[in-house]
Amino acid sequence: MKTEIRRMLDNAHGTKLQNSYGLQTKPRAKKLSVQIQTALDDAVKAKNADPSTQDLIKARLRALERLDDRKLRKKLKTLTDANMRLKAEIAELKAAALARPTRPMTEVERVLAELKAGGQQ
Hints:
The protein has 121 residues and is mainly alpha-helical. It is 74% helix and 3% strand. It has one domain. A hairpin with a 5-residue loop joins strand 1 and strand 2. Helix 2 packs antiparallel against helix 3. The relative contact order is 0.05.
């Protein structure tokens, strides 16, 4: 009986979510930007609150800021690694292009190159 009442209360207050099959699912996590905005709104509301509440809000904001920094550093590292990999690939392609033997000049190309060189002098 108690478990049935607890289950009804849990479902009524939204602490447990169920899908269409009646299976329990996890609630979706809020986006970090939404959490930061909520914490900032709480900080504005708690300007005249007691110091312990203000300290808790400051700690929450610091934790969210660190989480945001970590997320940005991870994204930056991923992009930096991809950039380095692409630069290495470009260097390999350039080296391969320079190492590839060139075909001999045809008679017409040789004459044109000589005329061009003679015209520049």
